[in-house]
Amino acid sequence: MSTRWWYAWYAAALRDHMVDRKHIDEDNLKVEADLDAPRDSLVPVAGGVTVVVTQAFGPDGESLVGVGDVEFDGHAAVTLKVRAHGREGLVHLSPIHGDRRKTGMTDLPLGTRLELLSPVTGKKLDRLGPVDDGSGADYYAIYLTPRLSQGACVMVTDVWGHYHSRIVDDNALISYWARNHPDE
């Protein structure tokens, strides 16, 4: 089955649930994967260009999707608890990859180092390692399946305003922010 055929079919099936693409930073979004196989955790929308995280899990397997009634274009938010500057609060992230919208505790200065926690258990997200751009930021895991595998996760950074997330599914890099990585 070709990727184009599958996406055309899927886009037609989701026509009533299309994503408002005006919020997606397409200049910094890069897709590098063969998305022929449908996945439970990621849903391609609008011709295969948009990836929506439909399930996400914290370090103990707890769901991070729908931890409140916040939605972005009809899709439930992915929610994290953040701690910084002696404050703690919830941040609801758009599940649409490339969409920088978020609500909740969003008044942090750019460059603030964050402690990223599960809003359900309060446990710190699992650290995956440093971001390779010289920023000093580290990646933390939001898992895409209850198996809690690093081979299926959204890698988010712990620096406010540092848009360098990556999505890995089935050990394949699906997409990532190419802000500091020109087309390779």
Count every helix, treating DSSP H or I runs of 4 or more residues as helices. 1
Q: Detail the poorly predicted runs.
A: 1-19, 23-46, 174-184
Count of distinct structural domains: 1
* Major sheet attributes: 6 strands, antiparallel
* Proportion of helical residues: under 10%
What order do the helices and strands come in, and which of them pair?
Elements: H1 3-13, E1 29-31, E2 42-45, E3 50-53, E4 71-72, E5 75-76, E6 78-84, E7 87-93, E8 102-104, E9 115-117, E10 127-130, E11 138-143, E12 153-157, E13 166-169, E14 172-177
Antiparallel strand pairs: 1-14, 2-3, 4-5, 6-7, 6-9, 7-8, 10-11, 11-12, 12-13, 13-14
Descriptive overview:
The protein is mainly beta and 184 residues long. The protein has one domain. Helix content is 6%, strand content 33%. The chain contains one helix and 14 strands. It has one helix spanning 3-13, and strands at residues 29-31, 42-45, 50-53, 71-72, 75-76, 78-84, 87-93, 102-104, 115-117, 127-130, 138-143, 153-157, 166-169, 172-177. A six-stranded antiparallel sheet has the order 1-14-13-12-11-10, with no helix packed on it. Strands 8-7-6-9 form a four-stranded antiparallel sheet, with no helix packed on it. The chain has a two-stranded antiparallel ribbon with strand order 2-3. β4 (71-72) and β5 form a beta hairpin. The longest helix is centred in the N-terminal third of the chain and has 11 residues, at 3-13. The radius of gyration is 16 Å and the shape is globular. The two termini are 27 Å apart.
